[in-house]
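Students often ask why inverse folding is considered easier than folding. One informal answer: many sequences map to the same fold, so there is more than one right answer. In these notes we will look at a single instance of the problem. The structure comes first.
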């Protein structure tokens, strides 16, 4: 049985709950085992997913901080809880793609597995009711959710983060196919927020090209928990 934090819950998403702390500029993220796909049309549970995502995110946030990239991470306080800065999330998902896969292959009719060099970056408008649609800079200007300067900064940070993560995963015999980032504003600064985990990244084993992420849940590939635990083992080894 898991015990939830004692603070007041201020937000519950598909994968996390956010709680207040005794400091107004800090919150506690609680990582759940709930799994969703296809804009929450498919639901399930991945045992200990929350533990894996919390620990993997901690390792990667620490790595990025060491490389001069600011994040919301403060400390991991338990298997499922992470203390973070309280940010105002920019409602734009930044997707970095190194290999053709998923929706990109379907939309453009490209062969899955083809390398993308240099990486491309896509923006998606964070709105569950709309299905988080793919948007361009002009759409986001029309929606008034991010200024051109913020979009430029998110794009630059996406490439910087990719440059740090690609060799890190390569050393661990993993292909970083693509991944989603979210950013927030903290004291007028844009910093990386949310999580970096098998929920938000597409990982393939470098040798077998087998999926090591939430695609195993999306596509009913089986051995979902085993894949998440293997990612944790490689990332934290």
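Output (designed amino acids):
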């Amino acid at each position: 049985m898991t015990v939830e934090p004692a603070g007041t819950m201020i937000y519950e998403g598909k994968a996390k709950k956010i709680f207040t702390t005794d400091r107004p500029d800090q919150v506690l993220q609680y990582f759940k085992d709930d799994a969703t796909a296809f804009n929450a049309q498919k639901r399930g549970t991945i045992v200990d997913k929350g533990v894996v995502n919390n620990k993997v995110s901690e390792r990667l946030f620490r790595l990025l901080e060491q490389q001069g990239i600011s994040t919301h991470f403060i400390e991991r306080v338990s298997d499922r809880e992470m203390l973070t800065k309280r940010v105002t999330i920019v409602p734009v998902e930044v997707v970095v793609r190194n290999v053709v896969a998923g929706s990109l292959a379907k939309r453009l009719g490209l062969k899955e597995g083809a390398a993308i060099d240099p990486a491309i970056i896509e923006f998606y408008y964070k709105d569950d009711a709309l299905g988080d649609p793919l948007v361009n800079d002009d759409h986001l200007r029309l929606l008034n959710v991010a200024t051109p300067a913020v979009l430029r900064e998110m794009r630059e940070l996406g490439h910087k983060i990719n440059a740090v993560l690609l060799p890190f995963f390569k050393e661990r015999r993993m292909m970083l196919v693509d991944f989603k980032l979210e950013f927030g504003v903290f004291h007028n600064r844009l910093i990386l927020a949310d999580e970096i985990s098998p929920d938000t990244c597409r990982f393939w084993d470098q040798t077998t090209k087998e999926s090591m992420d939430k695609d195993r849940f999306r596509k009913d590939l089986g051995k979902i928990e085993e894949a998440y635990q293997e990612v944790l083992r490689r990332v934290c080894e």
